[in-house]
Amino acid sequence: MTLNCAIIDDEPLAAGLLKSYALKTPFLNLTGTYGSAIEAMRHLRDEPVQLLFLDIQMPELSGIEFAKILPPDTRIVFTTAFQQYAIEGYKVSALDYLMKPVSYDDFLRAANKALDWFGTVQRQQTYAKDRFMYVKSDYKLVRIALDDILYIEGLKDYVRIYLTDGQRIMSLMSMKKLEDYLPRPEFLRTHRSYIVHMTHVTQVDRLRIVFGTEYIPISDSYKADVQQYFDLHTLV
């Protein structure tokens, strides 16, 4: 995967350093380097990018202000010499926050974080569109239709996938990987050990999801997301 990126920084030396980093990073395609958010705005409207390395303290329009008007699918890595802006940066969902002078190691770490983020989104879109996935089980690749998944249970290094026809498939995989790849909110983590296919839920009893004689707990850590799902689908 290649990510289109741009740099916005009103300091020529800082912008030049970031440009040199982007040009030597194989999975980045640098489409432009701009000295202000106003200048970038004219170009990015017609040629949007996936990743933006954005200075915070700039005249006319700050990086924080500019971030608020960017498309939601543009990921931001803030670059600044002022640590006090870190909290503001995370409020606008920045992927990372790099302190100047930026080292290539830090730049590459942030770029890889963006690559992982877009890779996850791409897989989620693929799974949601194709409606199936393959998992390794007993040295075989097993195709599983998403619509056939009832829920998933985490068992240390393994997961057990429960299907609507009663089958149970074991696979060496982390719950985090499945949580990242399965489309949301169709699939929601309800507990450290459970991911539930929400479209199959027909009954909830005292913070437990009921599947026949099985009860899937809803823990405090995941309660808000699950409750939001039910709120959106509940007539009151």
Content-based structural category: alpha/beta
Secondary structure: number of strands: 14
For this structure, the quaternary state is: single chain
State the helical fraction: 25-40%
Uncertain runs are: none
Shape: elongated
Number of helices: 7
Strand content is 25-35%
Q: From the alpha carbons, calculate the radius of gyration and give it in angstroms.
A: 22 Å
Mean pLDDT: 90
Strand order of the largest sheet: 2-1-3-4-5
**Beginning-to-end CA distance, first to last residue:** 46 Å
Would you give an account of this structure?
With 236 residues, this protein is of the alpha/beta class. The protein has helices spanning 12-23, 37-44, 63-67, 86-91, 104-130, 175-181, 223-232, and strands at residues 3-8, 28-34, 51-55, 75-80, 96-99, 132-137, 140-145, 149-155, 158-163, 168-172, 187-191, 194-197, 208-211, 214-217. The strands form four sheets. It has a five-stranded parallel beta sheet. The protein has a five-stranded antiparallel beta sheet with strand order 10-9-8-12-11. The protein has a two-stranded antiparallel sheet with strand order 6-7. The radius of gyration is 22 Å and the shape is elongated. The protein starts with a strand and ends with a helix. The mean pLDDT is 90.
